[in-house]
Amino acid sequence: MQPLIGITAGRRDVKSPGGAEPAYVLYVAYSRMVREAGGLPVILTPTPADRIAGLLDRIDGVVLTGGGDIEPSRYGGTDLPSVYGVDTDRDAFELALAGEAADRRMPLLAICRGMQVLNVARGGTLIEDISTHLPDALAHQVEGEETYRGIHEVSVVAGSTTAKALGSESVRVKSVHHQSVRKLAPDFRITATADDGIVEGYEATDGSWPMWAVQWHPEWLPDDPASRGLFEALIGAAV
Questions:
Q1: Helices 113-121 & 88-104, crossing angle to 10 degrees?
Q2: 203: helix, coil or strand?
Q3: Which helix (H) or strand (E) holds 25?
Q4: Are 153 and 125 within 8 A, CB to CB?
Q5: What is the CATH number of the domain that holds 45?
Q6: Measuring CA to CA, how many Å separate 171 from each of 121, 136, 198?
Q7: Which of 94, 182, 221, 232 has the most other CB atoms within 10 Å of its CB?
């Protein structure tokens, strides 16, 4: 039976006959990769905290997706002018969802914002803006045509579950982020870094938990075996 994979969605205003209306949106790239890996995607939208357990009872795995920044007060950070796209309802839902999924050791793939959400949910902190705090770092937030290609290399720890899913210890990644992990939560260990030292991936210290967290966007590289490997690993664990 194909596992049911919940994928978090972001909120945006969309054009309607009556004007702008709030909507929950999800890039097709996420659901496409889940389907092609053998899963059945379902979109998750903000749900009251007391209903999250019932929600997770009905699905087999979770993808925490990219999006706007987490409200800095959630991790004791500073609200810089460069912080953008904060959605307090989404933050509340996804932090609670990530925490419950972690408690259950549920199959989980955390991507970009999702990686940051999971880290904050388990007690970690974030660099609010890489270019502000680390001006000599690589360009991690790239726009235009470059966003559809790998733009920098990531080194992956040999023997890690991340390396096993990717099938490689070095990958070229699509990078669209201006924040990153500062302090890693105690549940995790770093498994991937960029040449400038920015954390690009982590996994659970508990090897029995099928969880992969990456700072890049594998969903946008459907022809890349390493990117597909992350989704295939998730689906394999959720069966």
A1: 70
A2: strand
A3: strand 19-25
A4: no
A5: 3.40.50.880
A6: 27, 22, 15
A7: 94
C-alpha dihedral sign at 231, 232, 233, 238 = positive
Q: What does each of the 239 residues of the chain score in pLDDT, given as a tens digit?
A: 899 999 999 999 998 998 899 999 999 999 999 999 999 999 999 999 999 999 999 999 999 999 999 999 999 999 999 898 999 999 999 999 999 999 999 999 999 999 999 999 999 999 998 777 767 666 656 666 666 666 778 999 999 999 999 999 998 887 787 889 999 999 999 999 998 888 999 999 998 999 999 999 999 889 999 999 999 999 999 99
Q: For residue 148, how many other CB atoms are within 10 A of its CB?
A: 11
Question: Residue 38: exposed, middle, or buried by beta-carbon count in 10 A (0-12, 13-18, 19+)?
Answer: middle
Number of domains observed in the structure of the chain: 1
pTM above 0.85, yes or no: yes
Neighbours of 162 (CB within 10 A): 28
Query: In terms of Cα–Cα distance, which of 12, 177, 198 is closest to 82?
Result: 177
Intra-chain end-to-end CA distance of the chain, in Å: 7
Catalytic residue numbers read 112, 217, 219
CA distance 43 to 176: 22
Distance in angstroms (rounded) separating the CA atoms of residues 191 and 179: 18
d(CA 74, CA 124): 10
> What's the angle, vertex CA 29, arms to CA 119 and CA 131, rounded to 5?
45
Look at the block and give the residue holding tokens 């938990």: 209
Compute φ and ψ for 3, nearest 5 degrees: -70, 150
Domain range for residue 86?
4-238
